[in-house]
Model the fold of this input.
Amino acid sequence: MNYRAKNKKDVRTMLSIGPTGSGKTMTYQVIAEYLGVPLTIYDCNSITSAGYVGKDIEDSLKEVYLRANKNPKLAAKSILVFDEVDKLACRGSDVKDIAVQQALLKLLEGYNYRFPLVKNGAEVSLDTSFMSIACLGAFSSIFETKTRISGFNTPTYEEIHDVSEEDLIKYGMIRELVGRWKHLFIYKVQTPDSLRRILLESKWSPLLLTQERYLSEFNTELIWDTTFIDAYIEEAMKRKAGGRSLSKIGANTFVKIDRELLRLNRENPDIKRKILVNSDTIYNNRKFKI
Done:
């Protein structure tokens, strides 16, 4: 709807809350791919207000402009995501923290920025009025507080995840910024079932992408059994990093297989092979059959 908006008052900003690996960033990657617009993901840990050591808000806009191939019209319609926005929470009356949030507020409200791409270079102009801007954060202590039980009253899942504007303000976000977020999305912790679906059904599944790569690059079919998937999910749950853990486990699991396939492919690239993996491969990446 932001992409089709004709009036800047119709453009909505968003706040996505949830634990690491719950899919916050992936949501905007999917939307950007669907719309065919540039996506810029900027880490709030590096942002400071003007006058303090560190990066400025304008640095994020420079990235937006460059990702749009220096096309100001495309940049103005792109998606800008500020990750870990909860790290900007005020600690008491810290002037620096408040100033950074106020600088972000100006961006969310829509402003025509002018800035040089390089020091002393020519200035470029970029209007953020029609840009889709989303902020992401874990805000973990909000849920931890709501999870604490008092007496015999155990809060329901809905009560724990019913985050209000006052919850965000108490966390340390300024009221003006909280009021600017028109949509609030809460992401759940990944479960074994949801991780299994990502692994076996998602087009971004590290397992399915590896299977596809082996077939195209090495003429090799990757085959696994149920014990492999069960061990994969079990290990991912132990790491408590949600969907992100799937990629890390996959990278470690297949690194030895990659090397062996490269060696075999150099010796004889025309042979069609099969790779068999099971639960043992997850715990020891040298255990596989070709």
Notes: The longest strand covers residues 132-137.
